[in-house]
Fold this sequence. Notes:
Layout: H1 2-23, E1 41-42, E2 56-60, E3 63-68, E4 72-80, E5 85-89, H2 95-101, E6 109-111, E7 116-123, E8 143-147, E9 157-165, H3 175-178, E10 180-184, H4 189-240, H5 246-257, H6 263-268
Parallel strand pairs: 1-2
Antiparallel strand pairs: 2-3, 3-4, 4-5, 5-10, 6-10, 7-8, 7-9
Amino acid sequence: MAVIIFFLLFSSIFLNTEAMDKNCTPAKCFPNGPEILFPFSIKGLQPQNCSHPGFKLLCKENKTTIHFPSYGDLVVKSISYDSKRLSLLDPENCVHQVFLNLDLSRTPFRYYYILKNYTYLNCSAPLPRPFVQVPCMSGSDYHVYVVASFGVVPDSCKPVKTVAIPFSYSPYLADDSFGLGITWDVTRREDFVTCFSAARGKVLSILVFIFMVATLVSVKTYCSRSAWFEKLCGYYATLKHVKFSPRDARNQVKTSAGYGNHGSEFRSMLPK
């Protein structure tokens, strides 16, 4: 029974894998948008089981977006499935605002580039060169800077937060050209399907062999038990129709026990 359940379980996995391959077709939010494949899926356009948890994408205002609870929606610029790179854009065009607030520790993603600790400073007065303020995070009465390291904090500044991010602010690096590069470590669906398909034939052959051996053993056991049962029934039927008189019983016991050391004791127990 256990072998049959094991066989049916693997068969259902193979069937589900093939059905998933047919249902999880590539999709796009708009004609020029990135093609969405496993481990991602678009909510409402592809089945829910076509993606890993946390890889669900949305179509909003003719854009492909992904939602992060710590920040909000970011636009998916492109996806490289070979290098596992997801390039994102901030709708507000303020990538350092994203760096400051985005928390990837509770997501399946991490930054694609090497990280370094940077500190955000909020200053009430502008700082001289070489400090360069972040325009999208600054205002008329406050100025935000991103510094790699500093000795003494200027009197007009207060540290906001130190985070590990790919780069500091540079006026020569536009937010929409560099973007946010993140990656993931989940196995690609193509790798999973290829590996599973390669092992499918061998697994099925082994399962068929085990099933055949188990069937033969079960048949042999059943036949052995049936033969023993039929033999027992034959003995019972024979004994059922045999009738012994007291004289026959005495003679039988006498014959069996009369030649032993205790034959006299057995004979004394028999009725006269």
